[in-house]
Amino acid sequence: MQNAIEKQQAYEFDVYHKRNVAIVRGKGATVWDEAGNTYLDCVCGHGVSNVGHAHPKVSRAIAQQAETLVTCPNVFYNDKRAELLEKLIGITPKNLSRAFLCNSGTEAVEAALKFSRFSTGKTDFVCAMRGFHGRTFGAMSATFKTEYKQPYEPLISGFSFAPFNNIEKFREKVTDKTAAVILELVQGEGGVNIADAEFLHEVRALCDQAGCLFIVDEIQTGFCRTGKMFACEYFDLEPDMLCVAKGIAGGMPMGAVVCSDKIEVPVGRHGTTFGGNPLACAAALATIEVMQEENLAQQAREKGDYLAEKLTARNLSKVREIRNLGLMFGIELKVKAQPVILELLDRGVLVFPAGSTVVRVFPPLNVSFEELDIVIQKLSETLA
Questions:
Q1: Tell me, what DSSP letter sits at residue 352?
Q2: What residues have CB less than 8 Å from 370, skipping those under 6 apart?
Q3: Of 55, 97, 251, 285, which has the fewest beta carbons less than 10 angstroms from its beta carbon?
Q4: CATH fold of 58-293, please?
């Protein structure tokens, strides 16, 4: 009888670098493989499982909604969709007033790019070096890394790149053709690089002066990961569009673009089949309620400070720098990341890369301090 790995290898059109483990169950910060081995999950679906695996409130909401109504096309109104839209507008920056619901982060970025072109009548975009926004054609055009893009060229024209946190270079790139500037507040895939507050406010002013829009991509930083509901709160920042996904629905596929009144796209010019379906909306509502009830933003700040302090105090000879905002960690190494990632897998801790020399550590926000101590010990044994 084939196990999960053999069966998937036989039938999957595989585009991923796999690790030789089949995860079959999760609870909180722990996951189990087919053989019953346990791992502390500091990958979290690349920042999806902020409330942990199989949270009872989220699981109940999904089960109840599955027995009530799973899908409802957007030509009809729906109660769960309406509740979620109200909730999203209540927790995002105050200048944002409406939201478009979709299925993923890359879809959110695609929508934001389309909305920018339609609302401004302009064509071009300015993006950051080392930025990552997704793998569909528009989102990939806004992504910096050549190896993601080159096999699929020509991509969409009109995208240019400037160094992150360098306002003068951004000024050089913005022209009268620029529809929007798009930025992550913490570059995840690019190495966990944190934006400077002054730079962000200069970009906001630059967009206002140039008559273009400011898109903030909080697909990975959103929903308490950085120690705030959204990283925008650290910078008192009001984007024209906020792209969110990953942590929004406790593991259910979902994304959204939350828009200011500057965004004007008439009925019929964009759409989605599954976006805003009642099942995903119920999961998102329950997930956001868990974040608020368990004060996961504060937990992320406190546990992020704890993890940073404990790791910094260790003599980790392979480490060049530790960067974090809340529980979004990038450990830059003096060596290649992949052997370290595989060694940690053998030690029972799941982490993932951010480039060739950076290890990302993203535990669930409700991870216990005892579990963090295990992560610290395993990291120390591997990196010393």
A1: E
A2: none
A3: 97
A4: Aspartate Aminotransferase; domain 2 (3.40.640)
